[in-house]
UniProtKB/TrEMBL annotation:
Residues of the PilZ domain: 2-87
InterPro entries: PilZ_domain
GO molecular function: cyclic-di-GMP binding
Organism per entry: Candidatus Scalindua arabica
Descriptive protein name: PilZ domain-containing protein
Length: 135
């Protein structure tokens, strides 16, 4: 059974390992308190230390993680990364909220035809849903 609830995401992610050589830019598939999942082009050995950067806010979310699993899927690999330290928890919660706000903005455009700025979407989402966001 999964230890942490995962939230769907479609956020850009950059990752490095092996002496900080840039290895790729992908999109996060899901993110949760304990870690995240994203696609990579090459197999990365479980146990490897990986540095991730998610540039959706300023400053960008940056953290060190440990590769927990790497599974082949449709010619690519899906990578599960556990955060290496507990200090990332607050920052992860911020990224989770960004995920929800971006999804809210997309849904409002699709369902109601209203194009919201990031700030407008954040204000509306906080008014409607922040009270229900788990602490």
């Amino acid at each position: 059974m999964r230890q942490f609830i995962r939230h769907p995401a479609s956020l850009p992610i950059e990752y490095t390992f092996d002496n900080n050589i840039m290895h790729g830019k992908e999109f996060v598939k899901n993110i949760g308190e304990g870690g995240l999942c994203f696609g990579v082009s090459d197999y990365i050995e479980p146990g490897s230390v990986i540095f991730i950067r998610i540039p959706v806010c300023t400053p960008a979310f940056e953290a060190k993680g440990i590769v927990v699993w790497c599974c082949k899927n449709n010619g690519k690999y899906e990578l599960g990364v556990k955060f290496a330290d507990e200090a990332t928890e607050f920052r992860v919660r911020m990224i989770e909220q960004v995920c929800h706000i971006k999804q809210y903005k997309k849904e409002i455009l699709e369902k109601k035809g209203r194009k919201l700025s990031d700030e407008e979407a954040a204000v509306e989402w906080v008014e409607k849903y922040a009270k229900d966001f788990p602490e």
